[in-house]
Amino acid sequence: MSTQAITLRAAGRTMPTGLVAKVATVAAALALWQLLSATRVLDPDTIPAPTSIAVAAARLAGEVPFWHAFGLTLTGWSLGLLLSAAIAIPAGLLLGSSDICYRSCRFTIDFLRTIPPVAMVPLALLLYGATTQMKLVLIVLGSVWPLLLQTMYGVRQIDPMSRETARSYRLDRLRRTLFIVLPGASPFVATGVRISATMALLLTIGAELIGSAEGLGNGIGLAQSASDVPRLFALIAFSALLGVAVNAFFVTVERRALAWHVAHRPSPGR
Amino acid sequence: MAEPHTRRILVRDGEDGNPAELVLSVRGACKRYGTREIFADINIDVTRGSVLTVVGPSGAGKTTLLRCIAGLLEPSAGEILLDGEPVREPPEKLAVVFQDYSRSLMPWMSVRANVELPLRGKGVGKKERRRRAHAALADVGLETSADLYPWQLSGGMQQRVAIARALAYGPEALLMDEPFASVDAQTRSDLEDLVLDLRDRLGITVVLVTHDIDEAVYLGDTVVVLGGRPTRVDKVVKVPFGRDRDQAGTKARPDFIDLRTRVLERIRQARD
Amino acid sequence: MARGTPAFPRPLSLLLEAWLPIVLFAAWWVAGANSESLYFVSLRSILEAFRTQWLSAGAADHILSSMANLAAGYALATAVGIALGVALGLARPVGEALGPILEFLRSVPGVALLPLGLLILGVGSDMKIALITYGALWPILLNTIDGVRGVDAVVRDVSRSYRVPLRFRLTRIVLPSAGPQIIAGMRTSLSIAITVVVFSEMIGSTEGIGYSILQAQRNFAIPEMWAGMLLLGILGYLLNIAFRGVEHWVLRWHRAMTAAPRS
């Protein structure tokens, strides 16, 4: 566990100033794609035009089974993430506060987290079949680690000064944890949540695809077997949008909750 | 240290009435950001081999002015002349020593590599680079620290490295932006004397921005007091102490105290 | 880990790090020995399967195939990610205008692209390498952009006022300055790349470690399935150590600096 924690700055920052440029760039890229499709530079059987993907997407949006699958993916993802957080945050607080715990678990955690969670798909399938439980097991196995490590680093990087301040005012252990350790570590925890959320979404869709559990991933697999390429693209686009939404959601929450932190303060102009 | 130069354009009266050459002059410079005017109609002349200090209340745009002189910013109006030529981009004959030494030195390079960095751009060969870096480090008394990293040195030593880097570049003038603002008092007076010493030994021209009035008077042959809103040159003070200055003696002289009191009052008035 | 590793006497420290793995191993060995469960088999049989399946001549092909794809995809992602990242980080307006597109592409779950990869590139190494590259590209690219943009304003002023030419600016200022962040991105990418390798072998392949694991499960060869997972754990751990070694060397200045007491 050599890694220094990943910095906050990677968060997607949006600036209103370049909005026009951004919209124009997206429009230009789509227009170029459309043009390449229309002139048959891109084979419509493998890469369909944006318009036909849009038609497929509109059709999907009108289907009940699609929304059902969408809901299942969302449920699996959020339950899995919640479960991971419930395990990883307390464990991270403990490992970060106690050097003995940290050193005892270092090797074990290091080893377990390097096993790619997809390697567990066969086992999870054996145990639970194509169910939500199967998804949950995989999601937790994959997304518990980033959150655990980030929480741990977060606790370990807390300025010793704030701990000493807390001790000199004789705050007890519970209050120290609540008022010093948890807030002090929270920027790192927040980054961990974001990484874990992305990981969890990836695993949800992956589990659905390999394990044929109902959800967006399975829909993607079905579209492929049916060779319905526009639908395949539309589904991939929907899952990407879900990813964008998940990330945007956590960035917003993080900004609100951690407005006090340096990384979120408005930078003083030169 | 200064490279040979052929241009001798303007000659004015030097500090002792001797003719002296104008190295740098700011002509009617003015800087605006939108409608906000930082400074207006600044005129400053710097003669060769002299130390010119710029003081002013904080927020007066001293750093902005220095960045304009350094060619890092373009003035909104007016011009900066270096050896008679307008400065449009960072000129080769100027070296800047920035305030924040912990950020201006590259932490991934050794002290020597930091000092050699600007010479690479000039296409100086390896051997010559070594030699010049060594000479510059020796000038600031750090020849034994060449293989260390900047962050292994104290703040004062880091600022010496930054000065050595500037010297190795072989500039005609050294621009210093509050160079000693973040070091302790003892180190500060050592570094002040280093500047005077370098000027005496190498004949280098120095423009130094500071908010410390004692420092401005102690170091400067000329002190430019900025003030007003937008900032203008409030007063130009000639310092009559000559070249022999020392921390204890000079600062105790009645005329030093008198001078610094006058400058302080100007700044106070300018602020109100 | 600059702080918080108080000096334990060496043997004690070793014991502290080793007891949990030993206990877990022993517990599994003992408890698993009489296991009736179909799925949680004894450690002895797993190790036995590991020996016959992975420490034999036939195994090399599977392992090599996985590792070759991993290496190719990861190297490609690193090269493209850093080059493009530096360009977009320096050309700020371009980078910002492309922001939404990059954000969208990055959010495409790598696994969702597998059916598409199969469709376009078919079954084979090309498809796997393309997928690995795609998955591993984003953390490197985005971290590089961020790291390049984050180069200290004072450092930028220094390189401008000392007229440091572009190529030195890139190699001696921009890249080292962004280094820690680039490496952080590469670390994230490595684990993504490993995941995508295994995943792509489970669906579009007849070779590789992922394929072997899924095959074992389909044949109800449970010890072999566990052995495959164990192999992935070991390989992942070794790759991590190798990565750490490279990182240790590349960022030696950074490590020493953060450890040094600041005056």
Describe this structure as you would to a colleague.
By secondary structure, chain A is an all-alpha fold. Chain A has one domain (49-258): MetI-like (MetI-like fold). Chain A is built from ten helices and no strands. In chain A, α8 (173-211) runs parallel beside α9, α8 (173-211) runs antiparallel to α10 (229-257) and α9 packs antiparallel against α10. Chain A starts with 18 loop residues before the first helix and ends in a 13-residue tail after the last helix. The model of chain A is unreliable at 1-15 (pLDDT under 50). By secondary structure, chain B is of the alpha/beta class. In chain B, α6 links the parallel β8 (173-177) and β9. Mean pLDDT of chain B is 84; it is low at 1-15. Helix content of chain B is 37%, strand content 26%. In chain B, 47% of the residues are buried. Chain B has a domain at 7-93 and 207-272: Rossmann fold (3-Layer(aba) Sandwich), CATH 3.40.50.300. The radius of gyration of chain B is 18 Å and the shape is globular. Chain B has a six-stranded mixed beta sheet with strand order 7-8-9-4-10-11, sandwiched between helices. In chain B, strands 1, 2, 3, 5 and 6 form a five-stranded antiparallel beta sheet that branches. In chain B, α7 packs across α9. Chain C has 263 residues and is mainly alpha-helical. Chain C has one domain: MetI-like fold (Orthogonal Bundle), CATH 1.10.3720. Helix content of chain C is 80%, strand content 0%. Chain C has twelve helices and no strands. In chain C, α3 (59-90) runs parallel beside α7 (125-149), α3 (59-90) runs antiparallel to α9 and α9 runs antiparallel to α11. Chain C is flat, with a radius of gyration of 23 Å. Mean pLDDT of chain C is 84; it is low at 1-5. Chains in contact: A-C, B-C. Chains A and C meet through α1, α4, α5, α8 and α9 of A and α1, α4, α5, α6 and α7 of C. Chain C: This is ABC-type nitrate/sulfonate/bicarbonate transport system permease component. Chain C: It is a multi-pass membrane protein.
